Amino acid sequence: DPEPVPNLTAVSHYARLCGPRPAQPDRESSTTAADDSQTTPGQTVGTVAYMSPEQARGEQLDPRTDLFSLGIVLYERATSKLPFNGHTPAIIFDAILNREPVSVLECEPALPPELARIIARALEKDRKLRYQSAAELRGDIERLERSRSAGHSASTMSSIVAARRKSRTRIALAVRV
After folding, report:
1. Angle at 91 between CA 122 and CA 38, to 5 degrees
2. Which residues of the chain have pLDDT under 50?
3. Residue 64 burial (CB count, 10 A)
4. CA distance linking residue 91 with residue 146, whole number of Å
């Protein structure tokens, strides 16, 4: 599973996840049942808050699983909040499977609406409606960057950072008052 924001790095306007190996499609394995490196069906492995609906249901995984997890990281990066949270793994699983996250724009109105659409599509519960490849997601982000740079000097990541700073400033002002 991807880990929280510190592992998301912006490199030339591209997001790169660092850390644990991405989910791989289920494959026939020649390992024995005694091999501890393999998981068994129905076993929860990883950080629950970053799991996809198909992981929560114990279904077969494919690269779209990682795109959902990347959507969670992008949402967290944009809003400083997790889209699906709770006090127990069961509550988090319920949110992942049955609830829509609060809109990115509701949390951070200064963000570009197109970024909210990109994140929402990455967080689509039905993987057939989710981004089908990282290249497709990258294309949307590049188009957003291009349209933003044509009209503004700030990049999308700069917009996220500026919105988060503005949010922190509002919090700091509220604390001082």
Report:
1. 70
2. 3-14, 16-39, 153, 170-177
3. 21
4. 39
